[in-house]
Design brief:
Blueprint (H helix, E strand, L loop, with lengths): L3 H17 L1 E2 L1 H17 L4 H18 L6 E2 H15 L13 E7 L5 H15 L6 E6 L6 H12 L3 E2 L7 H14 L4 E6 L7 H14 L3 E7 L5 H13 L3 E5 L8 H9 L4 E5 L7 E3 L2 H8 L5 H9 L4 H12 L5 H14 L2 H5 L6 H4 L3 H19 L3 H5 L7 H11 L3 H26 L15
Parallel strand pairs: 3-6, 3-7, 4-5, 4-6, 7-8, 8-9
Antiparallel strand pairs: 1-2, 9-10
């Protein structure tokens, strides 16, 4: 996952801060040297890093003037606040208009075409801000660019416009605008060709497209793997087109993510979204406070909660919770829960949203991969059971039923026994949790996470 490089190193520094309790000026200087090195190794621009460290230093040193020492929590709060500040303070509010025209620009290979479909899907189907979108293919230079956008448009069932035999981009743009006017499209997203900022001819082409459509938003699409040079690239695009925001792609990868800091702080450009996977739904609103929280190992419970809420309505979730608390949770419910968990993303991605303290936040990648494998095996086994067996797991103790399920699923007796054993263990934990909650006491959260795995 993106930010892994930075997050793991920052967490070590944070643990070091927390272990000291009270900090002197010397402690603070030592810590900030480490933070500076981490940011530079993560490809954050030097000027951005210097400003960030300087700001923390002034506030932190100010805290130790009177008492000669300050608490580690004070320093952590300062680092968190400065991270939020450097990342843009607040999430960008979408510039909603009765008709919005979004012009997507950037270098070739940044993931622009896929992002066009992701953004359209997010604004229309998820946020429900528009009803009649149009995706326009203006990349006549990259082979298969038009085919790619058409395939994506069909996948989300959105109107698509292209002229395959026309080589004049300006003429295509004008014709697309006429069609948009005729059909009253309220969201038009333009997929322009990737280009270098030094290619004056293609940059002039973008200026002409801008004059024709008068976009409400011009979004720069940046590759999460970009190094510090992306700052100069975005600066040129901004000078010529006046960008409204940035979308950073491939943030589900091992990208260091330093470009986000540089673009947000040095250019004062809002990061509007992050591309976090290959699926069309994998586009997340960028929240500076949530990213800062993740980087410091504090987790991101808000995003985790939102992901869970997207999976179903409150009534069905409440019904499931009541079943669990009453001890009626069965294998059918377990299957639904596992399917919903899969929709939220892989366990590795989910674990990144958990605080790094406690058992859940310290699960190793090896353990996570093992969990993923077990989940897949359990799904296959449960799907090979009858409805009656899922509702009454005690029936699964019968040898003939076991043999039939193993034959149908292709799994081993050990895996079958493991599922039943872990499910029984999970049921007991749920009942214990229910009793604690009903008594009005707080449950011991350190014991969570041991159920199915």
């Amino acid at each position: 996952m993106a930010f892994n490089f930075m997050q793991k190193r920052l967490e070590k520094v944070i643990h070091k801060v927390q272990s000291k309790g009270l900090l002197s000026k010397e402690n603070i200087s030592e810590i900030l040297k480490e933070v500076k090195l981490i940011l530079l190794e993560s490809d954050v621009n030097l000027k951005v890093v210097d400003d960030f460290i300087s700001s923390i230093e002034k506030k932190a040193i100010g805290k130790v003037v009177d008492t000669d020492r300050t608490s580690s929590q004070e320093i952590l709060k300062i680092i968190y606040d400065e991270l939020v500040n450097i990342l843009g303070k607040e999430a960008k509010t979408w510039n909603y208009q009765s008709r919005s025209v979004v012009m997507m620009v950037g270098l070739q290979g940044s993931g622009k075409t896929t992002t066009v479909a992701k953004l359209a899907n997010n604004l229309v189907k998820k946020q429900k801000k528009y009803k009649n979108p149009l995706l326009v293919a203006l990349d006549i230079y990259r082979p298969a660019a038009i085919d790619q956008l058409e395939t994506l448009a069909k996948k989300i069932d959105f109107p698509f416009y292209a002229e395959r035999n026309e080589k004049d981009v300006i003429k295509i743009a004008k014709n697309a605008l006429k069609l948009a006017d005729k059909n009253n499209h309220d969201l038009i997203i333009l997929d322009t060709a990737g280009r270098l900022q030094t290619d004056q001819k293609l940059m002039d082409e973008l200026k002409e497209i801008k004059k024709i459509f008068i976009p409400t938003d011009i979004i720069f699409v940046a590759d999460g793997f970009s190094g510090q040079e992306i700052l100069n690239v975005a600066q040129e695009f901004n000078n010529k087109l006046k960008l409204s925001s940035v979308i950073v792609t491939k943030m589900d990868s091992n990208a260091k993510g330093g470009a986000i800091f540089s673009l947000a702080y040095a250019l004062k450009l809002s990061i509007s979204y992050l591309g976090v996977g290959e699926k069309i739904a994998n586009l997340e609103i960028f929240y500076p406070n949530r990213i800062a929280s993740r980087l410091l190992g504090l987790g991101d419970i808000e995003t985790l909660t939102e992901k869970a809420q997207e999976l179903g309505d409150e009534k069905s979730q409440e019904k499931m919770f009541r079943k669990m608390m009453s001890g009626k949770f069965d294998l059918d419910d377990l299957l639904v829960s596992m399917q919903q968990m899969s929709k939220m993303g892989n366990l590795g991605a989910i674990s990144k949203l958990l605080p790094s303290f406690g058992k859940l936040g310290k699960i190793s990648e090896e353990k996570i991969n093992s969990m993923e494998t077990k989940l897949d095996i359990y799904k296959v086994l449960i799907n090979s059971m009858t409805k009656k067996e899922r509702k009454n797991p005690r029936l699964l103790k019968h040898q003939k039923r076991k043999e039939r399920i193993l034959k149908g699923s292709g799994r081993s007796a050990q895996e079958y026994n493991d599922l039943l054993r872990q499910f029984e263990k999970m049921q007991k934990q749920i009942m214990q949790l229910s009793k604690v909650l009903k008594s009005g006491r707080m449950p011991d959260l350190s014991k969570l996470g041991n159920g199915l795995f």
